[in-house]
């Protein structure tokens, strides 16, 4: 019994350090007010849906929505539907989307651990090293940044991880293979209905497994691929039979996906996403190279079967990244769902040496005690620092001051006029915060009871308005006597 407890305790300090790093990289920012514009955009749509504004297939952002459309179709609707449930459950407070994002972080971490244990299902000692892929994953800058914000990739990642887990289990299963493949296909459908075409990349997993591992016949792999491809196709085929879902998905694909690809490039080089991947994973690649160098000197080798598994997961990571090169619409956070697989793959290669290192440290009581104390101290600091950030602002401090001031004057669900120019209309942070916290829209096309402009506005507001609030970044005016309809 004492020996078992010692074996279980070997990795405890490293788990403490890993959890501490995960906490300190995400929660202190997540708990503060202010979020990246895209995150607030998605949050606002989900909150509206929870309030009965819009429907699942035709969600709403604001009075004018976006891109000249009468409903919101920047993403497919599943992610908004899931988040709307959380708003119904926890209410409209600021922390609801933060609870949701934290849950996505915890679920992703748990799924990475489950995948790791599935890889080492016959080696309980290696299973306890699941902190290695977690550490490599959460320290990727674009990864922890995404979990500091309510990005749609966070939700898609859960579907992708579950899909890969079931696909991997199906390749090892002596029975129940088709059930695993069915569940994998359903999760691929969920990923694509959350984030569109990028969510389909796990359909390649059986073929990647055959290419990397080669411990099953191509006939079985071909059948598995047909199943996990066929399930999303079947479900989308059924959705196309219903006018509401058909119209929604058609608008999303023709007006937004094709429209953005043709008219809204973000980068000038298709290789940009690979450069972003390299820049984000330099620490992980460097650490892997160093560990492999020392492992080679000590003649510690990764077993051939696990080398193949490492290659398998790294190729899955590329399968989720390389298709982004098909367009010039590339942003770093688009590859977040692929990052766990790079982390798992690299971790597999460095795990044997790390296991020996952990064993050595655990046998040196003074060093082990010091590392344990460091782990506890770092964890306490991480939690304490997170708590100290409550009530603070992570970004847009002056803007949020103005939004709260506007919300005290302008009634909820109002529409506020703005100048008929791109200046204020293109300030999407302003729009998102007003919609999220007060359901207040802005409109450049016609007059309303209230009028909003930048404090450095040129010229005078329309004659019928008088200044009611001079704020940090904006001036708020109100119509003098007659209510504008």
Q: What structural class should be given to the helix and strand makeup? A: mainly alpha
Biggest sheet: strand arrangement: 2-1-3-5-4
Q: Report the mean per-residue pLDDT as an integer.
A: 92
What would you call the shape?
globular
Our estimate of the beta-strand percent is under 5%
Number of helical regions: 20
Q: Mind describing the biggest β-sheet?
A: 5 strands, mixed
Radius of gyration (CA) equals 25 Å
Topology order in helix (H) and strand (E) letters:
HHHHHHHHHHHHHHHHHHEHHEEEE
Pick out the low-confidence regions: 1-5
What count of structural domains? 2
End-to-end C-alpha gap: 78 Å
Q: What is the percent of helical residues?
A: 55-70%
Q: How many strand segments?
A: 5
List keywords for this structure.
485 residues; mainly alpha; 2 domains; 20 helices; 63% helix; globular; disordered N terminus
Short description:
The chain has 485 residues and is mainly α. It has 20 helices and five strands. The protein has helices at residues 2-9, 12-30, 37-50, 78-90, 95-119, 124-127, 131-138, 141-146, 152-172, 177-195, 205-212, 218-239, 243-263, 272-297, 304-319, 339-363, 365-388, 397-409, 422-425, 428-438, and strands at residues 415-417, 441-443, 450-454, 465-470, 474-479.
